[in-house]
What we know:
The structure is a homodimer.
Chain A: H1 4-11, H2 15-23, H3 30-43, H4 49-56, E1 61-66, H5 72-87, E2 91-96, H6 101-114, E3 118-121, E4 139-144, E5 153-157, H7 159-172, E6 178-182, H8 188-202, E7 213-215, H9 220-232, E8 239-242, H10 245-257, E9 267-271, E10 285-288, H11 291-307, E11 316-319, E12 322-324
Parallel strand pairs in A: 1-2, 1-3, 3-4, 4-5, 5-11, 6-7, 6-8, 8-9, 9-10
Antiparallel strand pairs in A: 10-12
Helix pairs in contact in A: 1-2, 1-3, 5-11, 7-8, 9-10
The structure holds a DNA duplex.
Amino acid sequence: MATIKDVARKAGVSTATVSAVMNDTAFVSPELRARVVTAIRELRYEPSQAARNLRRNRSQLIALAVADLSNPFYARIVWSAEAAVAAWGYSLVLFNSDEKPDTERRILSRIRTLGCDGMVLVPVGAANQYQSHEFEGIATVLLGRSIEGNSADTVTIDNHAAGRQAVDYLLDLGHRRIGSVTGPMQLSTSKGRLDGMIDAMAARGLAPQPGHVRSGEFREEAAYSVARDMMGSPDRPTAIYVANGVMAIGVMRAIADLGLRCPQDVSIASTDTVAGAGGLKPRLTRTEHPIADMTNEALRLLVDRIEERGAEPVRNIIFQPALIVGESCMPLRGDAG
Amino acid sequence: MATIKDVARKAGVSTATVSAVMNDTAFVSPELRARVVTAIRELRYEPSQAARNLRRNRSQLIALAVADLSNPFYARIVWSAEAAVAAWGYSLVLFNSDEKPDTERRILSRIRTLGCDGMVLVPVGAANQYQSHEFEGIATVLLGRSIEGNSADTVTIDNHAAGRQAVDYLLDLGHRRIGSVTGPMQLSTSKGRLDGMIDAMAARGLAPQPGHVRSGEFREEAAYSVARDMMGSPDRPTAIYVANGVMAIGVMRAIADLGLRCPQDVSIASTDTVAGAGGLKPRLTRTEHPIADMTNEALRLLVDRIEERGAEPVRNIIFQPALIVGESCMPLRGDAG
DNA sequence: AGACTTTAGCGAAACGATTAGCTATCGGGG
DNA sequence: CCCCGATAGCTAATCGTTTCGCTAAAGTCT
């Protein structure tokens, strides 16, 4: 691998001049420039990123740490993020914290030693688990979830509105006994969506029955088992609001295995869905978030922070959900309960 | 950010000693070691990866370039790869060539300048598009697809067996007029699967009708439109072999939109499926590949190449598919065609 | 013509680690 | 008593860039 010195020697100039040519950073006479350019080509010289990084104190790396790579929601984020990062001239280093705070801690430290210029983080775990030095000196944008008391920029979704919209829809169909399968309560997303549901019902003088609100990990299996349990009892809800796409799959499977039909026996509305499920029956009624837009926005904020050293105020961007009607809900039959 | 010099000064030792402590690379007396360790902790010193990279000529980065991040098949690979890479002590840099050879070319150059220690590549495009210097000096494993004439290690699947197994299953159910929706013919995967289908039929003295073999991009939309076209004609096949998971979704949607039912009117068998679709109806009958095992194996080979400088012979590992029976196929009715 | 500016390019000092080679100390064997 | 080997740690070179500050040479102004 040729170095800048080889090029300089071959072109009969100093390394400073080669560097100037490479980076267009100073005026170089056409004659010298030509000699340098041919030397570069002949030696197939490519500057060492390592040396450049050391000198410039930059790595051109942006880290993305998501909560669960097996979840299509995050796979979608990864997809968008890769494109956005490349468009900004960086490369994407990907991490999966797998919803484990310990893993996340290791990831944060790794991101730091790698010298990433910035990171987009989908935080896992409660606010008090983070230490401020974990974020020091590295541009950060929190995506999807926020950390209370943290001063990083955030791009989140309006979880309350998502829960409220979905449940309002079920209420409009006449459902009164509505249950929910939702994620861990320490996450702002689960909490917000459930609060939205509760407020939607409260606005009509209703409240979910205690046994009709179940939470578990944001995973298909967890949803399957709580749904199976909840729907096995005789006073089961006539409709379910599921807080997450993969959980919705689990709930539908549980219902099918109990011999119930969706939507005839149980209506299901969710927030978020899984990509590819659009082709299968029944199509889920759900609220969706503009994942690509959110991710692009997160990277815009991040690159902004990286490249302007300016201490702009913290920015919190909240995206609104949209209700997408599928075939997984029906009006409640006459014998309403 | 504290440097090794700060630590050395604070502990009253030389930088060499600090380095020795950090890397356990030479014997240091317990007393000095203790002083160094506390200095490290107090200054919150973390070695600069950039400096280390420059000196060691290593980056601890492994690149993964997949063909299409929007495809759950590759999302699954990314998931596995992240875990494997982390387990080997590296970090994963992710690229999406989006099935575009030009994009892939840029990615290869980027991987090179980043100084990645190795790369796992799902190649896009035909063998003659690659230049040998694009692979020079960087450990490479080809995953899923191979490049004829290339001397990199490969981890692939037995595409021929996959096509053959799936179509044998359809034949066993009595189907004779079997069609196929498959990917671009220049890809070894599409070609192999279709050859497997043709051989399966040939073994029973059959051959697919010309209009019953359609190829298009490995995308849902492409599959939807060719399937719609193919299934619209009166002599449509009674069963379809679909070469890819997302295409299978497209085909099912096309069939539903034509007012046909699966499996009653058309049986569908595929190679590969989409994650999450397991919960929805009807469950696809398909051949599956052990994606996690394949990815792990690819990284094992890669790390092997990176860490042993030895010139072992080229290794080509081929994984076998397994048939998974769902509910998307039925025996052909009496009026067989 | 002398005194400044500007320009084009060079030399060498960073950046922050690793590591080869050296020195000083100590103990033990001949 | 001298020499040798082992031990513990230091000095300084090195990795490949970027960039600050300098020097001639050439141009501009009085």
